[in-house]
Design goal:
It contains 5 helices and 10 strands. The chain has one domain: Electron Transport, Fmn-binding Protein, Chain A (Pnp Oxidase, Chain A, Roll). Strands 1, 2, 3, 4, 5, 6, 7 and 8 form an 8-stranded antiparallel β-sheet that branches. It has a two-stranded antiparallel ribbon with strand order 9-10. Strand 6 and strand 7 form a beta hairpin.
């Protein structure tokens, strides 16, 4: 049976820090597509306080999460235990997009490990923290993190693509505005 918590306890913080992957889910206010994004690298996620978390939004592919958060703010972050005792932890809340132009960006970026291609930081104010059994989640081994996203950051084709994306407005697959031209700088911004 699942349990609802007032906030992130020491035990839940420990559980989060042990997970090599987490998932982020968002959806537009009306119609459109629900988006679920897997996120790797444990050093891209941080706990700010008992009810506030944040993660690095690295330039990679789409901008669904940013568009959805700017549309309605709803977000769920989910952690699954793929090893050890079975558990699923969901953080339901309201997310906001922090760009390099926002005053809090400079302090927040210091909380993460070193990664190139930082687009934004997503901050989530958790309104509900709940776990469930995870009995059907498979047991899997985490061999290593993939470094491909970081490794590609210096390639000419990657830089060209990031410049093109950053200097133009970007929309979600449903046509919601996510980022305005030059709102981020994933070419030069590193954590």
């Amino acid at each position: 049976m699942g349990k609802v918590y007032e906030g992130l306890t020491d035990r839940l913080r420990s559980f989060i820090s042990e997970q090599p992957i987490y998932f982020v889910a968002t959806a537009p206010q009306e119609g459109g597509h629900v988006n679920v994004s897997p996120k790797g690298h444990a050093d891209t996620f941080t706990i700010i306080d008992d009810t506030t978390v944040a993660y690095l939004d690295l330039e990679g592919s789409g901008v669904e999460t940013i568009a959805h958060l700017r549309d309605n703010g709803r977000i769920t972050v989910m952690f699954c235990a793929f090893s050890g005792p079975p558990k699923i932890l969901r953080l339901y809340g309201t997310g906001r997009v922090v760009t390099p132009h926002d005053p809090e960006f400079t302090d927040l970026i210091k909380r993460f490990g070193p990664h190139p291609g930082v687009r934004t930081i997503i901050v989530v104010d958790c309104e509900r923290v709940a776990d469930s059994c995870g009995f059907a989640v498979p047991v899997m081994n985490h061999d290593k993190d993939r470094t491909l996203l970081d490794d590609l950051s210096g390639r000419t084709d990657t830089v060209t693509r990031r410049v093109q994306r950053a200097t133009n407005d970007r929309e979600s697959i449903d046509g919601l505005l996510a980022l305005r031209a030059n709102e981020t700088d994933p070419i030069h911004q590193h954590s």
